[in-house]
Amino acid sequence: MELKLVMPDIEYWESYKESYFEMGHENQVKGMHWDGHSSPESYFQDALDMRQGRELDGLVPATNFWIIVEEEYVGRISIRHELNEWLKNYGGHIGYEIKTSARCKGYATGALKLALRYCLEKLKLTEVLITCDDQNIPSWKVIEKNGGILQEKKKDQNGRLSRYYWINLQG
Q1: What's the pLDDT at 79?
Q2: What is the DSSP letter of 118?
Q3: What is the pTM of this model?
Q4: Least CB-packed of 1, 15, 29, 117 within 10 Å?
């Protein structure tokens, strides 16, 4: 299995569009989620702006990768370059989603491993915070397989119990 992280790209656009209805669309974030009707070029520009810290509209710089397996889109992973107060409490450095038909195949584990390498090598981060819903057992298994140490459980802004993991990238 060849798994890679790529910036949103026209080469994988059709595969991405075919996956649109398998992905969540709540809490849409610029450069991470396509709105379903704007041009691919507009979406790609938003992703590039986010990565380069331009036109953030109150967000932090973030690199939004597509997860590609065997030349097909299977999900996305977003890496925030820094944490603001909201992200410290609710979001963390990394968020990811695998399309429904591609779940339970190890793609999230592999993608997170590559994302952590990116955090260390490109962003020079020494540790990252990742949060997930306490009921999302597959997600916390992915995080723990990648070295996540559970620091605490607490309710997020919606009253949902969340797990807060730190991963040391220097170890």
Answers
A1: 96
A2: H
A3: 0.91
A4: 1
Q: Which pLDDT band holds residue 31 (cuts at 50, 70, 90)?
A: low
Measured distance CA(146)–CA(148) in Å, rounded: 6
Q: How confident is the model at residue 115 (pLDDT cuts 50, 70, 90)?
A: very high
* Bridge partners, 77 (sequence order): 65, 96
Q: The domain containing residue 157 runs over which residues?
A: 3-168
Q: How many domains does the chain have?
A: 1
CA atoms within 13 A on the CB side of 44: 12
- Write down the pLDDT at residue 40: 83
What CATH number should be reported for the domain holding residue 79? 3.40.630.30
Query: Sign of the C-alpha dihedral, residues 153, 88, 34, 109?
Result: negative
CA distances from 15 to 9, 84, 103, 124, 169 (A): 11, 33, 16, 32, 32
Non-local CB neighbours of 64 within 8 Å, separated by 6+ positions? 7, 8, 31, 32, 47, 50, 51, 76, 77, 78, 79
Neighbouring C-beta atoms of residue 116, cutoff 10 Å: 21
